[in-house]
Design a protein that fits this description.
137 residues; mainly alpha; 4 helices
């Protein structure tokens, strides 16, 4: 009775290792499951960077609650736009195995664009009236 349980546990571990190996080999991904995992991994990395930059902007706006509220509203609206836009852009492959990858790649691309926007906000020169984020002191 212990043997089947041991075999099952070994199978779970090996499956997990295979999945991790696939995710680490994104440059050579050749099956859809791995490509989906890689797209997810890339989006998570971009989202982490975006959140880090968002917190930096928040910190610079700590003395201006009106701008801070506008930042929150803009970010919520941007997330809703990103998700709706990517759902729409992937509508042609709904139900297919490629659908998750297409949605994730779209979200990753838009998130990377937002990262660039945030980096621009954080690097504005003193006196730039078009910049909503004060420069670092």
């Amino acid at each position: 009775m212990r043997f089947p349980a041991l075999m099952f546990a070994a199978g779970v571990v090996l499956t997990g290792l295979a999945s991790a190996a696939r995710a680490d080999d994104c440059a050579n991904a050749s099956d859809q499951a791995t490509m989906n995992e890689c797209a997810d991994k890339s989006l998570k990395a971009s989202d982490t960077e975006l959140n880090t930059l968002y917190k930096q902007i928040e910190a610079r706006l700590k003395d201006d609650q009106d701008k801070a509220k506008l930042l929150v509203a803009a970010q919520k609206a941007w997330i809703a736009f990103r998700d709706a836009e990517c759902d729409f852009s992937a509508a042609g492959v709904t139900g297919g195995s490629v659908y998750p990858m297409i949605v994730l790649q779209c979200r990753d691309g838009l998130t990377q664009n937002r990262v660039k926007d945030f980096k621009t906000y954080l690097s504005c020169e003193e006196g730039d009236l078009s910049c909503p984020v004060p420069s670092a002191n």
